[in-house]
Amino acid sequence: MEFRPFIAGPYTHTSRSTSKIMFWVIVALLPTTVFGLGLYGWPAIYLFLTTILSAALTEAVCLKLAGKPVMSGLSDNSAVLSGWILALALPPWAPWWVGLLGGIIAIGLAKHVFGGLGQNLFNPAMIARIAMVISFPVELTRYVAPRPIFTDSAPGALESFKIFIGSTTLDLDAMSSASVLSHAKSEMSKGISLTDIFGPDFPIMDLLIGNTTGCLGETSAALILLGGLILLTTRVITWHIPVAIIAAILLPASIAHLIDPGRFMSPAVHALAASTLFGAFFIATDLVTSPTTPKGQLIYGAGIGLLIFVIRTWGAYPEGMAFAVLLMNAATPLIDRWVRPRIYGRDLKGRPLPVNKKTKPRPKGKRKSEMTHTTEATKTEEAN
Amino acid sequence: MRLFRIRGGVHPNERKDATKDKAIVNLPLSEKLFLPLQQHIGAPSRAIVEVGDVVKKGQLVAKAAGPISAAIHASTSGTIAAIGPHPVPHASGLMGRAVTLIPDGKDEWGETMPPLSDDADPKDIANRVADAGIVGLGGATFPSSVKLNLGERHDLDILLMNGAECEPFLTCDDRLMQEHTDELIQGIRLMARALGVKQTIIAIEKNKPKSAAAMEAATQDDAGIQVVQVPTRYPMGSEKHLVHTLTGRETPARALTADIGVVVHNIATSFAVYEAVKLGRPLVSRVLTISGGAVKEPKNVRTALGTPIKDLINFCGGLTEKPQEILSGGPMMGQPLRSTDIPTVKGMNGVLALTAKDTQRGQTHACIRCGTCVSVCPVGLMPLEVMRNIQNDQLDAAVDTGLMDCIACGSCSFACPSNIPLVQNMHYAKGHLTAQQRTQHRNEEAKRLAEDKIRRVEKEAAERKAMMEKKKAAAAAAKAAKEKAAAEAAAKEGGDA
To answer: Backbone phi, then psi, for B160, in 5-degree steps?
Structure first.
């Protein structure tokens, strides 16, 4: 008789793998990435590469320190992906140390301190971004207007490198520009009505195409949507989180805007400006830090959407995606504990269903608990 | 017919093309047949033959030992050469007791049982099925007669014939439905009669249109039998899920489908029922699929039970490469076979020789909490959570999160992009819990016996004490009486004096 270790079934497996999932996320990121790098030119390219390299190196060092296999850990592309998303959420002309530090914080502090891939509670890229926004508010809020690469307004490769390492003679403050949301916030603080800030000639198309001031990869709503579609068709994500986020922003935003258009931004600006779509499709959907059940994902997404609306409307920060995502990340374990699928043959509390012979099929979409409710209600009525 | 949606499920690569158009062929008799005494769920059968006995085909060689057990018959005529340990298909890989039969080559039937008529008494049909040693041929191997008697205690209204055949590679039921349609229908009618139900549903997955058409054509005029095509989705063949899909009735946890009025039998079982009732023949052969990437010419064969699987593989042109795994059953829930000396048994619906390319076994990576396992679980578990509890050795928490509701279909492990052995860990945890319970039961039993003994000893001691006191009292009384008598006598003597 031939002896070998037993490996139990199943003896077949899907062709989907972790590294393939990461690969598809990267493919989905490509359109907006290429657009953003072209829009902001060489400094953005330097920053992008530095951030990714920093994230990958930090991953390698942490794996080594933890005594885990380095190459197989790197081969799942998760660190590259975190660095990539972080880079796209940074001001495009941020100096080199922003990318370097960002990568170290994202991977070292937000991921490996928790135990590495799959163990982190918070989205690594967003932890890094928030840590930097709070620590270095000047560099992290200094945006430039688009200067597409190879155009006259764009700095060359060498001049860009000087900007990147911080030894440029150019006056960066003079070149800076405000993103739509921060512009609106600062103007409103001067007491100007939103209807005057966003006049009738407000370039809503620019937001869609992406020819605006903003983070490296967050400007083009159309290309981000394309990426989102790629994620949905390759089934890396489901519709629940993005749809819940967008719906939860649009609903209160629409109501508020209808009540007072001078004080509340229009839902279109909310949806298209800044990181709304990028966050909804690429950041909030991070598998590790979001709930695992569809219902839980709807709650999580709705929470993010509402928080974004609240932060943008009443908070000190013009944006709000990063804070909203981190707050809901913290709620994820709770959501996963409370919102779970009903186990087959049991009610929502886990008790076996009653054995009543030849039960009629339950009406679709009606829960057991609701049904008991109805019977109780009828009983009370009868009693009365 | 309206179908009801069930949650979860996966779509493994079907791989049925290799054999789905291959007609069933009879396998020549092997030089030696091995009949394991445990081919069913329940107690092993008791051998009633001895070494050297000459038997005819269909002759009883082992009797059912208890209510959940099954008879075993000689698959051909020949001589009993041995009764003892032999490699058997069992998850442990250990040997089991088997009867070795050397065929005489004549394949001569002994005395068969008299055929029963279509309007036979339901009880007689069930008894015949028991006498023929028929068990569920889909792989679960539960004695069929027990399930045909369920009408006694349950209010049944539907017989559901499971022709889903949702496991990849397997096509034996598909072929049987096309080639032996009439026999199957006759068997099904007999089973419905035994159960006393008016409605029968034959469920066939949509990837078997030829079978569905054949069965439909054969049951056109019978209002009591419906052929329904169900979506091709693993694990559609799971009993509770199939019932739910077709009737919308949900089996409560820890209950049987019979509790909600439905009895499910595998479609292949009805063929065995037909042979037993109509021809008087016990279950001595079965149809199975031999396939897998390492098999040269995959086939559907009808083989005598007890045929070593190496003979099956050789009949199919042998192996083209060393297989990574040889399985009994399908790749999702099949059992690995450790030796090709293992014989075919009643519940074996396929022998698969799988290559590394077939099994797609990959390296395990960290869980990225993608939730795929949650979305594919047909039971509504969160396998990643159950797994975490098991790995932290918190089996009670694992039970609280639904471990015991797991039907072991393997969808989670199949779909996990990180190749995490989810269902395997659940198997482990269930086994561990069973062992724990057994130990606990044994401890409780020992404690009970010990307490009983203490009580008995105390009782005996008390009884002894009581007896002693009684004796003492009696002795004292006797003594007192004697003294009294002596005193009286003395007094009398004195008086006399």
So the answer is: -110, 115
- Global pTM value: 0.85
Nearest to A10 among B250, B331, B368 (CB): B331
Alpha-carbon distance of B64 to B70, in angstroms, equals: 4
Q: Which residue in chain A has the smallest CA separation from B256?
A: A355
Q: Which chain B residues in 13-32 lie under 8 Å from chain A, judged by CB atoms?
A: 13
What residue has token string 């860990």? B425
Q: Do A344 and B379 touch (CB under 8 A)?
A: yes
Residue B329 distance to chain A (closest CA, Å): 11
Find where tokens 């059953």 sit. Answer: B329
B156 and B197 in contact (C-beta within 8 Å)? yes
Bond into A10 cis (ω within 30) = yes
Length of chain B: 497
The answer to whether B35 and B99 have CB atoms below 8 angstroms apart is yes
Name the residue of chain B whose CA is nearest to A78's CA. B368
CB B175 within 8 A of CB B164: no
Distance from CA of A16 to the nearest CA of B (A): 5
- CB-CB neighbors (< 8 A) of B247 in chain A: 361
ipTM score assigned to the predicted complex = 0.83
d(CA B201, CA B181): 15
Q: In this structure, what is the dihedral angle of CA atoms B244, B142, B300, B59, given to the nearest 10 degrees?
A: -150
pLDDT tens across the length of chain B (497 residues): 889 999 999 999 999 999 999 999 999 999 999 999 999 999 999 999 999 999 999 999 999 998 899 999 999 999 999 999 999 998 778 899 999 999 999 999 998 899 998 889 999 999 999 999 999 998 889 999 999 999 888 899 999 999 999 999 999 999 999 999 999 999 999 999 999 999 999 999 999 999 999 999 999 999 999 999 999 999 999 999 999 999 999 999 989 999 999 999 999 999 999 999 999 999 999 999 999 999 999 999 999 999 999 999 999 999 999 999 999 999 999 999 989 999 999 999 999 999 999 988 888 888 999 999 999 999 999 999 999 999 999 999 999 999 999 999 999 999 999 999 999 999 999 999 999 999 999 999 999 999 999 999 999 999 999 999 999 999 998 888 888 888 888 877 765 55
Distances (CA, A) of A355 to A292, A307, A352, B119, B196: 31, 45, 8, 33, 21
